[in-house]
Amino acid sequence: MKINFFFLALLLFCELMPISAQTATVDITERADWWNVQWIADYEASADLTPLPFIKVEGNHFVDENGATVIFRGLSISDPDKIEKDGHWGKAHFEAIKSWGVNLVRLPVHPVSVHQRGLENYIKLLDDAVRWCTELGMYVIVDWHSIGNLKMEMFQHPMYRTTKAETYEFWKVIARHYKGVPTVAFYEVYNEPTVFDGTLGHCSWMEWKTLVEDIIDIIYAHDEAVIPLVGGFDWAYDLRDIRFNPIARPGIAYVTHPYPGKCDPPREAHWEEHFGFLAEDYPIVATELGYYFEGEHHLIEDGEYREAIMAYFAEKGISWCAWVFDPNWHPQLIKNYQYEPTHSGEFFRGVMLELNK
Q1: Taking residues 134-160, what's their average pLDDT?
Q2: Burial grade of 337 (CB within 10 A; 0-12, 13-18, 19 or more)
Q3: Considering Cα of 337, then 340, then 343, then 349, what sign does the dihedral take?
Q4: Could you give the 3-state DSSP secondary structure of residue 102?
């Protein structure tokens, strides 16, 4: 399909966040004694918490410290900055998530929210999430949540604006901060690469591959135990280029975002062509999927998508995170902060409670 319903749906929440141009790193411009500004300190795990087992890549799947295969089924929250501004940032929010049977929580970090808070203050929110997820037995993806063409620094909306330098710096700081913290199992190096039919410039797969490998090198220089997650073009749906030119770094997994608007039913052949074929050689995580019901907005469920995608993931051993555990962003998994599930929320919750035992 030429028109991407995912893009249309994104526009519905794009105006929710204001724009700022503050620095994303430690701000020393107001400090007369700039030479005394220290690096952001390493994460300090609570001494009374039992760490989760480390997760690593083995062949085409994830395994724990005992070598047992792990399939992740979870969800993405909205940006922690938004949840805090909504007044619901606390352990109770994550307890509600755990009650859905979740074993993986994706934390989407929007550049604009880092610009507003500054990275040091933003990391305090991430530290909260890591501590609560450790207590509740859920793993974490930290996701640099930009959409667009990082090579040319052209983006789908101002809230996604970043730079290559800022992206490198973000991952340098994050990887150093969470080194050796098994709860933080995954780094999604860039949310959704797209040139949007040339409207966001141009970027070849080989150019994107080089950028990604540079980011992974920075991450691995600080933490070789974490698993980088890499998405392809078409808003992180299309992984066909991997067949001939995979990312030349060990220990990684690939990302897809198979929303229903990507193809018409029957969909399995399209999924197989665009990402499923890789499951024979690499772990895959669908870090976003979801739908609306009964004609709400876009990404409409047609009565076949939800069962078909779950069956396909089960056949291929693909892990996933449903989008999004928020009452405002789309497609919602919850109707309100009383955590009443939407139609899609009810469906994904049922699957996780059944399979994540």
Answers
A1: 98
A2: middle
A3: positive
A4: coil
pLDDT tier, 26 (very low <50, low <70, confident <90, very high otherwise): low
CA end-to-end span of the chain: 37
What distance in Å separates the CA atoms of residue 98 and residue 127, rounded to the nearest whole number?
Answer: 18
**The tokens of 150 are what?**
């990082």
Cβ(123)–Cβ(171) below 8 Å: no
CA dist 193 and 164 (Å) reads 13
Closest Cα to residue 185, out of 101, 252, 275? 252
Q: Supply φ then ψ for residue 353, to 5 degrees.
A: -65, -30
How far apart are the C-alpha atoms of 18 and 115, rounded to whole Å? 11
Residue 320 pairs with which residues in a beta bridge?
Answer: 73, 286
d(C-alpha 245, C-alpha 255), whole Å: 15
Structure tokens at 338: 């009383």
Tokens encoding 86 = 């909504």
pLDDT in tens, 215-228: 999 999 999 999 99
Say how many C-beta atoms besides its own lie within 10 A of residue 50's C-beta: 10
Q: What residues contact 118, with CB distance under 8 A and at least 6 apart?
A: 22, 23, 24, 25, 26, 27
Residue with tokens 């999927």, as numbered in its chain: 289
Spatial CA neighbour of 44 closest among 187, 138, 222, 179: 179
Instruction: For residues 49-69, give the mean pLDDT.
Output: 97
Q: Which two structure tokens, joined as six digits, stand for 158?
A: 């101002």
Tokens 């609560």 belong to residue = 132
For the stretch 227-274, pLDDT in tens is 999 999 999 999 999 999 999 999 999 999 999 989 989 999 999 999
Closest by CA to 208, choosing from 184, 176, 240, is 240
Residues in the chain: 357
Give the residue among 197, 195, 221 at the shortest CA–CA distance from 208. Answer: 195
Report the alpha-carbon distance of residue 310 to residue 305 in Å, rounded: 9
Q: Return the number of other C-beta atoms located less than 10 Å from residue 32's C-beta.
A: 7
What single DSSP character describes residue 316?
H
Of 77, 67, 58, 216, the residue nearest 138 (C-alpha):
77
- The pLDDT score that the predictor gives to residue 5 is 39
Q: Identify the DSSP state of 341.
A: B
